[in-house]
Amino acid sequence: MWDHEIRAMASTHAILAASVFMATVLPAAAVPGFSVYGTHLLWLYSVSGAVTAVSVAVFWLLGITPPAKKHTVGYKLSRLFRSCLYFFLSCLFFHTVVVLYGAPLIESALETFSLSVLLTSLTTLRCLCVLGPNVQAWIRVFSRHGAMSVWDTCLQITVACTLVGAWVGAFPIPLDWDRPWQAWPVSCSLGATIGFLTGLVAAPAWIHFHRKQLTYKCK
Amino acid sequence: MKVRSSVFASFILILEGIGVALFLRGFFPVPLKSSVSSKNKLSDLPVEPLTGSSPNSSRLPQPLFKRVVIMLVDALREDFVFGPNGRMYMPYTRHLVERGSSHSFVAKARPPTVTMPRIKALTTGTIPGFIDVVMNLNSPALLEDNLIWQAKAAGKRMVFYGDDTWVRLFPKHFMEHDGTTSFFVSDYTEVDNNVTRHLDSTLKRDDWDILILHYLGLDHIGHISGPHSSLIQPKLMEMDDILKKIHSALISKEAEGSLPYLLVLCGDHGMSETGSHGGSSEPEINTPLVLLSPAFKRKAGMEKPGVVEQVDLPPTLALGLGLPISLNSVGRVIPGVLEETSLRDQLRFLHLNGHQLSCLLKDSVPDYEKEAGFEQFRVAEKAHGSWMKLFLEGNTSEVLSNMGKKVLKQYVEALAAMSSALSKQLGKYDMYSMIAGMVFVFQLLLVLLLAMPEALSGDAAVELPVLSALLSLPFYLMCLLLASVHVLVCTSAESSCYFCSLSWGLVFAAVAFSSAMFCILVSLVTRRLPLGARIHGKSPLRSIVSEWSLSELDVLLLAGTVGHTLSLAASSFVEEEHQTWYFLLNTLCLAVFQDVCRKYFREQRGTGDEEESILPSKDPSPKAEIYSEKWLALATPPFTLLCCRLLRSLNQTGVQWAHLPDMGHWLNSSEHRTVLSLLAAFCLVFIYLLVQRRCSWVSKVALALGLLGVYSYRAAVGNVLFPWQHSGRTTSKGTMEARFVYVFILGILFTGTKDLLRSQIITSDARLKSRGLWEIYSGLVLLVTLLFRAHNLPVLCCCLLIQTLMAQFIWKKLHYDAAQTTIMHYWFGQAFFYFQGNSNNIATVDISVGFVGLESYVEGHLLNGPQHLCGAPTLGVPPGLLPQLTERQEPGCSRPWLLLSGPAEVCARCSLHRAGDHSALPSLHMERLFTQITVRGHAPAADCGGLPLLQHHGAEPHCQ
Known about the structure:
The structure holds two protein chains of two kinds.
Chain A: H1 2-30, H2 40-62, H3 73-100, H4 109-122, H5 124-131, H6 135-142, H7 150-169, H8 186-209
Chain B: E1 2-4, H1 5-27, E2 67-73, H2 78-81, H3 86-89, H4 91-99, E3 102-108, H5 115-124, H6 131-136, H7 147-153, E4 158-163, H8 165-169, E5 176-180, H9 190-196, H10 199-204, E6 210-215, H11 217-225, H12 232-253, E7 261-267, H13 282-285, E8 286-292, E9 306-309, H14 313-320, H15 335-338, H16 343-364, H17 372-392, H18 398-426, H19 431-455, E10 461-463, H20 466-470, H21 473-491, H22 498-501, H23 504-536, H24 540-547, H25 552-567, H26 571-575, H27 577-605, H28 623-648, H29 663-668, H30 673-691, H31 697-717, H32 735-761, H33 766-787, H34 793-811, H35 818-835, H36 867-870, H37 877-887, H38 901-915, H39 920-938, H40 946-959
Parallel strand pairs in B: 2-6, 2-7, 3-9, 4-5, 4-6
Antiparallel strand pairs in B: 1-10, 3-8, 7-8
């Protein structure tokens, strides 16, 4: 059963990683003058759009999302609405954190917000897909020994990798090299994407090698 | 031997101080000197080389110039004259540079680009070090051999107008002088008019030989509004007019047959893009050097100016005036200036310069014979001799001039090689002293760490095995080993070494001490190890491993400290170090926030099966209180983050983004003075509320009056407004108001000390002790409030507030141990250092702090004993250990090694210094270290890092 889940996870992650690559390559063919540095915001939106669409589709097809208690249309709509609300709130949250880290408040607000959209689509969206709009569950998963399934562990790893990637991405900004990727927010968004891809690879691998030690409490 | 732990701690701290002093002595290169007060004399000059002998040849050739006018414009940047805007800024000068009989160069000034060291460089030809910056503010007379002294000794009559640093450096040297003080930076017209007003009468007279003018206005404009301000152009036009006036006066005086004049236009240092100076960036070190004289060839058009060192000017001037070159000069004569003289004289000039350099090289480099330059000089001298022989024989063929040119070339190459060897020598560290100091510091630190559990236990005494160590065999073996190492190093030393120059007794004491420490260390280690095994009942290895379990916070603290150390290998990270600290601090706050969330939300859900300790439930506090406490604890980290973000926009520092507008400038502009006044008043009230809580009522009243005094001081100086008077009052120095505050500071400190002593001696009352500590703390806060600039008061306010909140809701409630808390304090302290607008650039040292309440600058304020060292960033740890040693409770003994990260950082930094092949890096680091020491030395308590620790300490006994 575990092997099955790990295999499912690996293939899901492969699809997600492929979507990131496609989101980089396809617009380059479609839009003239597209480049990761030059038209950075466009690349950023295309990656977050692709990751959003693919994760929603894949996780819905896989059916990991906790089953709805009621099957009324109204309940489903309210869940959808709450998910959208959470998505937006999470964007605002990331935006605030990035501003606290020292991003200019007004000057490049669009860039900062785009970065927070990317971070949200790489981290929060996955939580929404796996756990649903349920804050209690989120708190449980992200506390110290709170993982209750393979998917929870996987979520922890990818989210941590993405955030650490974005964090590390801020390092080269003060260097005086004058490279295009030092412009705000290129290095951070690249860092986050690379971190995310690393997380996609690392999570199934880590779970595979630690499957003997992993024991989950009540499911 | 049993020692009380307080005695032990102070002993260790004093010795640490000595170790660090030794280290710093090695770190700051000593100026190289053949001997301090000896001067080069005409009679000492070498004879003109000649194979065979001839009388009357040790005289100098005929001087080139009769009169010299040196016009020094402070902070004149190279592009103000030679740049594309030069034509617009200084049209006459530019015309002379392009068409006149002139030589123009870009003279490179060495860092520190501050006026006094630059004046020293321009007169002595040496390269003054960073230590000289301290002397910049209160310059004593220059005793070294220098151009001015030589000129006076040769009977030249000198006149000086301008910056009074010159007058203080060269007292009684000038026939006539008028100094202007450069401290009132806001004045940029009067300082220059004071110089120019003498000019007309002086230029008409004939009774002087050297005229020196030092104009300060441009530098002041740079400090006020930067190099692109609209004030720059009129000022430069004014300078241009003055130059024109001098030049035409000199031309009109020019008489047939007599020697020509020389007019020198130069800058002492440049100006960075923000208008400051002191560092080593390109615009700061590039200054123009324009020499005007009818003796030079007329120029045909604009050429790219050649690059020379600033120290090349003094030997050139000395030779041009027929004076001996000063002994310690490392400069080489500018060959272009000599071009028009006869070949014999040219060779003679170069020979004189070469001889002086080779003497200096002989004195300062032990294996000087291996230096390429020295060898070249010997060869050239020999060739010169044979040329002279031919010349005196009356040979005038082509061969002679070709040979002469060859000798000339050899001389020029030799001079270049020797000069660069000497400059390199100046930049060398004294490695042996550095290592010795480092070893001391580490030994002491290890002893301190090992003795910590014992010192903090109930009987508060440390058992030091001194006697057994002194009588053991290893002790004598170590002594022997170290002594032999010392002898070996000192006899084979390549360069001068401070530790070697100490007397034998002192060195032996140091060797004995070091080996005793080593033995004590070993015996302490052996005593600790089995003890650990017995207590835990497991193998010692296991217990050590279990100690090494890390929480996320520990990982962050360690990774942050290590990462910061590594980041200092890149020069941009040194320049922008504040960014690193802000970034780390933010991350720290987020990590703490996560910890807090985990604690409180966990509890709420009530998963009792976790091993994490839940709030001690024995105190029956009502539920509402717990809730408010919870929300306050949850709100603290976000609030801290918000504060840090706001403070960050208060002062822009660093290099890349320093020019961006910030709140500090906005507040300091005159139209926002009301806002600044309100803000300052609010901050003062807030500081009072935060600090007064636990003081006695006498101190409370004194504190309130003191803070009122601070406000009136700021009003008197003109920073803020009194509500009842809006204008029409001239700004004074506010000496009276500041002294008023000083009285209260002393009073509060006195009360605090009295309380502390009483609690120690008469009654051992914890409450009294806590009150005494709080009073001392509030006295220091008052001092800092006085010394902070008005717009920086919010920084202090936030510092105190954050500290209070953190101590109350986070550090205690989350059971952070002393090691973690200390490192966090260190990080906060570093960040608050930069929040005040300080940076690693020497130009941001705020010297105005040294004047508060004083009629004139007092250096003692700056070089103020040990505080000055304790504030240095490299020593963040010893003050951190203090509260632990005196707290007398079980602090973070579980992980004392966390504290080791501090000294490890120092060590790693030193190795980085050696490894760093980036040439600018050592000087950057030196600047960094120096700036931080100076800023913290200036206002010992202004280092926010120290304050929270004291408060932490002060808060402790009360809560026990």
